[in-house]
Amino acid sequence: MAEKDKKSEGAWLEEDEEGALFPSPEESPLFDGPEILHPYEIHALKVEEKVEAIVQDDTLDEPAKIDAIAELRNWFSGSTETIDAFLAGDIDTETAVTKLAAPIEKAFSTADYGRAYYYAEMTARNQRSFGNPEKALELWGPEEDWPEPSLPANETDIDSTEGHLWSLWYGILHAAKRIPWTDTIQQERLLALVQALKQRPDPPAPSPMTIPLKRNWIWESGTLWSTLSMLGPSAREAWNDCCGCGAGWTVPEQHAWTNVNAFVARLVASGTSGTFALYGDWAVGEAVENAPRSEGLHVKAPAITQATVKITVACVWLQIAGRYMWNLRADEGVSPDLKVGDLGARENKLPWYGHKKGAGEMRRCTARWDFWRRRLQQEGENEELPEEVRELARGSAEIIRKFFEGY
């Protein structure tokens, strides 16, 4: 029998000690050729082919392309049905807020329809087994009996408070990806929806509030809307879907990433959630301080493509929330003569990287802002960049210059 015939009948398979078959490196056609693709690499290539087909589909507008790509790449997304109706003007703010908030408030005030009592107590019993009994009693309270929950007849009641909140904020962040950052009216309308949720009275906490339940971070503060509970963790997860990580570098994905950054910058600038100012630091630092990445989960992009996206996102932050970010700077413990002369310096060559513990203020020092201004000014003259990006860079450098001059 010819060699080719042997392989066609599985002669290239070998047996291990237990009789299981596996490909022989010497004989298997899977090992032919100079390069061998792992299954995940094959899957990634297939995904990229499907993404490209979506991008090239002229029957889809960009929001629809972003939706399709999000589903294909498994982005952190939630239902946007009510949000879409609100943005389209089909329902008013009060109706939208009520539809979004009501199921979450019901789950919250009932401790997930009573199920959370049982799971909190099971956690407490495990924790009480560690350390001395007196301390365990102080931290977790006395042992209590709560019935093991069964699945409710109404399937929608299965969702926990936490699950509802993940879905809500993922939905809002995904909706933001579909709104061009230059569409101020729609971006502000979505911002107004979040602000209306924040102004909604917090629902009553579960009663009784057992010690184990209170130690769960969803119920610990006793608040829901006033603190925009779970928005922070949701955004942090969604930030893993940036270009080069959970997303590729196609134009719809570039726009989605820019748009959601603009929305979160509006959360900061409006005072709705100032904690996200750190995301602005990340954006500007990634654009003008960090070297382009050579590796990612998706197709690698040329350095100039990476720069185009990152500089755009940085400028969006500076133009929307730059004043808020500027007011956070702190120079305590920083030499007044500190200035980085080398505009090509990256990462560990910059004094605000690798700083010692306790010197975190240096991350937002005035010298860093001066470096940002000069680097953006330099990028504004970078002829490799598209003119619109160069214009954004020059405009952002001018904004920082005005900050320095007290405007």
User: Into how many domains do the coordinates divide?
Assistant: 3
**Amino-to-carboxy terminus distance:** 86 Å
Q: Enumerate the spans where pLDDT stays under 50 for 5 or more consecutive residues.
A: 1-10, 357-361
Q: How many helices?
A: 16
Could you give a short account of the major beta sheet? 2 strands, antiparallel
Topology as a string of helices (H) and strands (E): HEEHHHHHHHHHHHHHHH
* Overall body shape: globular
User: What does the radius of gyration come to?
Assistant: 27 Å
Helix content: 40-55%
Strand coverage percent: under 5%
Structural class: mainly alpha
Mean pLDDT: 88
Give me the side-by-side strand order of the main sheet. Answer: 1-2
In total, the number of strands is 2
Walk me through the topology:
Layout: H1 3-8, E1 13-15, E2 21-23, H2 39-55, H3 62-73, H4 81-87, H5 93-109, H6 115-128, H7 133-140, H8 161-177, H9 184-199, H10 211-214, H11 231-238, H12 251-269, H13 277-288, H14 303-326, H15 366-379, H16 387-404
Antiparallel strand pairs: 1-2
Q: Please, could you describe this protein's structure?
A:
The chain has 407 residues and is mainly alpha-helical. It folds into three domains: 1-31, no CATH class; 75-228, no CATH class; 242-407, no CATH class. 52% of the residues lie in helices and 1% in strands. The protein is built from 16 helices and two strands. The protein has helices at residues 3-8, 39-55, 62-73, 81-87, 93-109, 115-128, 133-140, 161-177, 184-199, 211-214, 231-238, 251-269, 277-288, 303-326, 366-379, 387-404, and strands at 13-15, 21-23. A two-stranded antiparallel sheet has the order 1-2. The radius of gyration is 27 Å and the shape is globular.
